[in-house]
Model the fold of this input.
Amino acid sequence: MTRALALAASVAALALLAACKGEPEPAAQDTGVPEAIAQTGGKPAIPAAAADGQYGTPMKDRVATLGLLNKRNNLSQDVTMKPGETRRIGNVVLKLAACERTLPWEKPAEEGAFVQVFVEDRATPQEPLAWHKIFSGWLFRNSPALNVVQHPVYDVWVKKCAMSFPGEEESPSDSASASNAPKAAGSAKASPAPAASPSAPAVTPPPEPAAPPADDGADN
Done:
């Protein structure tokens, strides 16, 4: 009896050690966009100027950085997208329609993006999982309270819209200094060196004193 108990304990210990050798690998996260969202997500109504991207960088070449927060585990991540792109992260789908930034001379400066957010969850505990659109509209970086993604688990906000405008790479002061630099160089070359006054008498340096005769050691 004692031997059987010892054998059972040994088997249990071996099974426990085998279980502790390594944790099972987490399941691969599905990144495929559901066909229902890809086809019937709807085209958001955005201003024509923003849709055409007629100011600055063309719309298709702009890059928006969105922040995504999971309130369950307090983990956030950056999601980089281009207008027209759809991205799935877990059971969240983000669709970016456009991103904009104020013109360089417009104050206050602002950056924004038109985003649609879909979440796969249950409307009630009895219903199966389904995709629901929880937000569609503009999100603003410096004025987040104007539009808020209202969901008990997820939050989305705008961090950046990477684009540029013609002439934005140099400031007016840099342009002014660059335009004045050639003129200053030309004026320096054109100015001749001052000539000596003809009425001033010429100054001749005094002659150097003659070297003393060498002493050859002879007595006089």
Remarks:
- The chain is about 20% helix and 25% strand.
- The mean pLDDT is 75.
- Residues 60-165 form one domain.
